[in-house]
Amino acid sequence: MSNKAPNYFFFLLGGLLSGVSFFSSIFIPLSILGHYLLIQGLFHKNLKFGSLLPGWLFGFGFFITSMHWIVNPFLVYEEHKLLAPLVLIIFPSLMGLFFVIPCILIKQFINFQRINEFFFSKILLISFFIFISELLRSNIFGGLPFNLYGHIWIFNENFIRVTSYIGVFGLSFLTILWIVSIVLYLIKNDIGFIFPLILFPMFLLSFSTFPVKEEQAEPKTIAIRVVQPNIPQNKKWDRTLFQEHLDKLLKLSKKNSNKELLVIWPEAAITGFLDENEDLTTYIKKNVNENTTIITGGLRREFQSNNFKVFNSFFIITKDGLIFYDKKKLVPFGEFIPLRSLFNIFKLTPGKTDFSKGDKDEILYLEFEKEKIYFEPSICYEAIFQTFNTKKVELLINITNDAWFGNFVGPQQHLTASIFRAVEKGIPLVRSANSGISVVTDKNGKTLKKIGLNKSGFIDFELKLGKNDTFFIRYKNVILFYLIFITFFVSMLGDFIIKKRKDLKIF
């Protein structure tokens, strides 16, 4: 290996290419190329800044391309636009630190100079170090499990069905293992890279080709209507347009049918305190069919002494009254300001008061056609976080407002993470988004119907419910330990066999 220092631009380029791979399935090869640039660069002896700068440059590039849309919320209102360039630099700079960790560990524990020695163990260790960084960024400081390695397979539900057995982090670990395997074969100029390139996708497809037999009991069905009003974000909180926005929602919700119907509106569809306005709930009930149940986002508050709490809430408007769930996972700078005394200028949503976290159970039920239907509600990006409630749940309902995130890949990436929750649980997903993307998926993550970005309309569907009883839900992320142990055993066995063959000179 050359003693000449590598060109540090290639570490940045590697991150940029890897981030682009989340735009579309046709860009998946860019992730392999990006990691090739990173790992090959780490092989060099003469890294003047150690592995800290290469890791940070790769991470900066990864997040500035894959999550550039994080700047869009700062472009909605005039008073925030001056902050947009600052956010575009600060966010990837901080998130890039997560890639410093695996690069330091790789440089410390992997002997690159003799790549053929313990080759499979090196693949495993490099993969494990990268995977640890993904776990960290998904869980610490509130967590940000966007654009996980496993998410690149979202283009076809047959490739993600394995998630119902090993979860999205299990799929991420195997995906990293797949990428690193190809990279190390390429570095040693070995045509053997073709083997992992083909084998892993075939492995994923096998879970859809030979599905496990299920009980033959007829699943329950529910008639739903998903409403997407497409109200511009800069007009959404305009009080003079409140009635116009409400009437648009009601017009999209009416249906000439005697059958019971569940209608789902998006996050904060009601821009007010719904539980404090009985006239408003009465008006809504009068303007939809009698057999219609409305789910909507709105605001709620609680008064305590001289103070009060505000909640971003999920409401069910029934014939008998209101049922609510308060959002538990709040968006930093959107719904609350961390270290408010320092960062108050970054608050994006109207109003000076931070939202409070809810504490109600996340499992709700509907009385629907004389049966109880249990579902898990989520608001906005709550749906990207794993939940492990083992109670009877038959449906995942997500209401969101992705008008904040622009017209490119942000809304699609948000939807991708939400779909993985449904597959892990083995239940369908119903998602109402203000400006898109609204969808109905089955329990395997297949999109049954959708409304694209910046369109107004609705989806009608007779949806089969699920069971929340997958292999993954039963055993949770404990499966990761077994998965890593099995790959460790196979790697050690492979290296042992190769060493024995060399010692015996059997070729």
Give structural notes.
With 507 residues, this protein is an alpha/beta fold. The protein contains 16 helices and twelve strands. Strands 5-4-3-2-1-12 form a six-stranded mixed β-sheet, covered by helices on one side. A hairpin with a 2-residue loop joins strand 3 (292-304) and strand 4 (307-318). The mean pLDDT is 87.
User: How would you sum up the global shape?
Assistant: globular
Main structural class:
alpha/beta
Spatial sequence of strands, sheet with the most strands: 5-4-3-2-1-12
Count of β-strands: 12
Number of domains: 2
Average pLDDT across residues?
87
C-alpha termini separation: 26 Å
C-alpha Rg (nearest Å) = 25 Å
Reading the helices and strands in chain order gives HHHHHHHHHEHHEHEEEHEEEHEEEEHH
Helix residue percentage: 40-55%
For the largest beta-sheet, the strand count, sense and barrel status come to: 6 strands, mixed
Low-confidence stretches: none
The tally of helices reads: 16
Furnish the topology, listing elements before pairings.
Layout: H1 9-20, H2 28-42, H3 52-66, H4 84-95, H5 100-109, H6 119-139, H7 157-160, H8 163-187, H9 194-209, E1 221-228, H10 233-236, H11 242-253, E2 261-264, H12 278-286, E3 292-304, E4 307-318, E5 321-326, H13 340-343, E6 364-368, E7 371-379, E8 395-400, H14 410-425, E9 429-433, E10 438-441, E11 447-451, E12 457-464, H15 471-475, H16 478-503
Parallel strand pairs: 1-2, 2-3, 7-8, 8-9
Antiparallel strand pairs: 1-12, 3-4, 4-5, 6-7, 9-10, 10-11
Helix pairs in contact: 1-2, 1-3, 2-8, 3-4, 3-5, 5-6, 6-8, 6-16, 8-9, 8-14, 8-16
